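Bit of a strange request maybe. I'm writing a small parser for structure token strings and I need a real example to test against, not something I typed by hand. Could someone generate the tokens for this chain?
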Amino acid sequence: MTAREWWREKASPVIALLLTALLIGACVGFAARANADPVSDYAAVNAERVCAVLENHPTVDGVTGILAGVIQDSGFPPYQAGRIVGMAVMMACPEYLPVLQRFIDRYAPPPEFRQGYIA
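Reply from user aminoacidic:
Good idea to test on real output. This should exercise your parser:
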């Protein structure tokens, strides 16, 4: 078997398969990024930091401090900062969801003022 025959029969299909897999992986990766929004990106990048602070300060005041830090660091408004903290906790440390619920219970508007809010 010559080198050309070996290439055509053995190596060429393997390389084609690898290139196809690489192309599919790149398409999937770029498609996921195309649908991402800045809030989700920020939450994903900073989830571990949020969880580290909650580990040291698992209180309503700890959540308040995290929200203030997110607002200061990112420039997002309070509503978006709340989404970021909620997403980060759901992604990386759901054991702190009860702390977030206590924060919501303390600071959420009374039911008669919640029109348009998801409580």
